[in-house]
């Protein structure tokens, strides 16, 4: 399906069910293809999934886990966020602030230990990290994928050689996910960039799951983008497979909720102009009801009431 305003709006008006179905099928085919490649190689013990903010890493990891189980694999999903160091051990930026975006903010020695145990025995104990309390718990979760089992590790740094280098090359499968497709207007010009689409996702998700206002999310956005440029994009071409997570109906789905936030934007926000430009683009789409979105859809990560929301 063409990624143009007129095509999307035409389907949203005349056949919204088909618009949703096509997008869901496209994403499902990409995930199924990746699962089949992984299942064919018995040496693979760890699947690494990296991608920028709001690309859908967490839900993709769980959907891929389900696909692999259908193919007879044992799977467990692991978030790199659980390997954050205690606050007093975090690295510092040049300005003396905690550098939580750095790969060195993760407990690399513990990560190596867990990886080695998975490869050698299929069993390990994983930590957990409570961001609200800034509290780490060691040995919080025991996993057992002995036999033909696979650990799916997701996070911003999952493709960083500092992480992937902890695992023998033959034992790891690398996956990069991103929206990675713009929406065009009818003149062929970019109406919504992939980054704007991710911003829409993140603003709505943070509001639902973290109780964050649009201004709180926007206050972090520039730092998030800079972290992606510094720590992520340079490694995406090392991936064994790249998966696009754009669902073509998204601007229609987010339209009303996102546009309604215009009245809340702070006049002093550094991202105000960028946000309002995104709102103006969103207004050009025909609204789509969230009742049409499957319970198991990746997009439920950003609007709630999904099969995998409890896993976040």
Largest sheet: 5 strands, parallel
Distance between the termini: 30 Å
Annotated CATH topology: Rossmann fold
- In spatial order, strands of the major sheet run 2-5-1-6-9
Rg calculated over all Cα atoms: 20 Å
Number of domains: 1
Total beta-strand segments: 9
Report the principal-axis shape: globular
Instruction: Write the element-wise H/E pattern from the N-terminal end onward.
Output: HHEHEHEEEHEEEHHEHHH
Structural class: alpha/beta
Q: Low-confidence spans: pLDDT under 50, at least 5 residues?
A: none
CATH top level is Alpha Beta
Helix content: 40-55%
What can you see in these coordinates?
The mean pLDDT is 95. This protein has a single domain, classed as Rossmann fold. Helices cover 40% and strands 16% of the residues. It has a 5-stranded parallel sheet with strand order 2-5-1-6-9. It has 10 helices and 9 strands. The protein has 312 residues and is an alpha/beta fold. The relative contact order is 0.18.
Question: What topology does this entry show?
Answer:
Layout (H helix, E strand, L loop, with lengths): L4 H10 L1 H24 L6 E5 L6 H14 L3 E6 L28 H14 L1 E8 L4 E10 L4 E6 L6 H4 L7 E7 L4 E2 L5 E3 L1 H16 L4 H18 L9 E4 L5 H10 L12 H11 L17 H4 L9
Helix pairs in contact: 1-2, 2-3, 6-7, 6-8
